[in-house]
Design goal:
The complex is a heterodimer of chains A (134) and B (233). With 134 residues, chain A is α+β, with helices and mostly antiparallel strands. Chain A contains 4 helices and 5 strands; from the N terminus they run E-E-E-E-E-H-H-H-H. In chain B, the strands form 2 sheets. Chain B has a 5-stranded antiparallel beta sheet with strand order 6-5-4-3-7. In chain B, strands 1-2 form a two-stranded antiparallel ribbon. Chain B is extended, with a radius of gyration of 31 Å. The chains are: A alpha+beta (134), B alpha+beta (233).
Amino acid sequence: MPFKRYVEIGRIALVNYGKDYGKLVVIVDVIDQNRALVDAPDMVRGQMNFKRLTLTDIKIDIKRVPNKKTLVAALEAADVKNKWESSSWGRKLIVQKKRASLNDFDRFKIMLAKIKKAGVVRQELAKLKKETTG
Amino acid sequence: MAPQQRKPHVCRNPDLIRGVGKYSRSKMYHKRGLWAIKAKNGGAFPKHEKQAVAAAPAEKPPKFYPADDVKKPLVNKRKARPTKLRASITPGTVLIILAGRFKGKRVVFLKQLTSGLLLVTGPFKINGVPLRRVNQSYVIATSTKVDISGVNVEKFDDKYFGKKVEKKKKKGEGEFFEAEKEEKNTLPQDKKDDQKSVDAALIQSIEAVPDLKSYLGARFSLKAGMKPHELVF
């Protein structure tokens, strides 16, 4: 029941509403009870309501409101991108994006692959069944 | 030099707001270089002689004046041109037909005819759709393209697909009717040959891509969970 992800300077959060939907941002300062100052390498530093953010497990080591160069360096040093993309949450998002961008032909190819895989699994299952009952 | 491309004309006097230009009359005079043209011409703006107007032949007064004014129809300068093709439809695009006998079939686009309809082929061997015309509105364009360079579609136009005009037969009864019906059903051999020649090159380029042949042979349908407004075609 205790909280594990805290709002603190350096916490990486995912934007879940608005123009920057889906971006990873760093909390660089807390403005008041509801808002944080937020920054990312590809956006202008600005305020965001906490309701628009979802906290992640990742935290980097920065001082309060670093300049862009320091921020980018700190992100590189902590290897945030790779940590995110290898986390199960990050991987899920990547798969969702891929699925949404599929072509009609891609969907057809995936259907063929699924059928093929199911066929192979069923064959193995049949073999195993035969062994145990035989 | 090759025929010169005209550069789009840039405005010398941009609008501050509608109706008010940035530069005053005197500034524009200077910008247009009218001073240089005058200087070249010795102080006055060059003019040319007015062309002598040929004297119009004397018109006779009309013999007849209509009692009421006849209304002239309004002038119509519109030109008939084929429907604008969507940017996503280029020769070789795979289209999904949405209505008619072949609804759901995935088909290869060949060219747009002068009537605006799209010329399309299955290919026939793959999914049973022959060379056919289809309206752009009843079609979804996918982003899959087939290489269409080996295909010659010059000879197909709207007349090729029009209904054949029948010679008027003398009025007969009974046997006559049956004889007519038998003739209509078969497709002329030259149309079959056209289909084969168009499809031969197409099928080769289709078989070069894995799974494309079975893709074109399968029909499209919406399954559970598919949201058409979110699908990328």
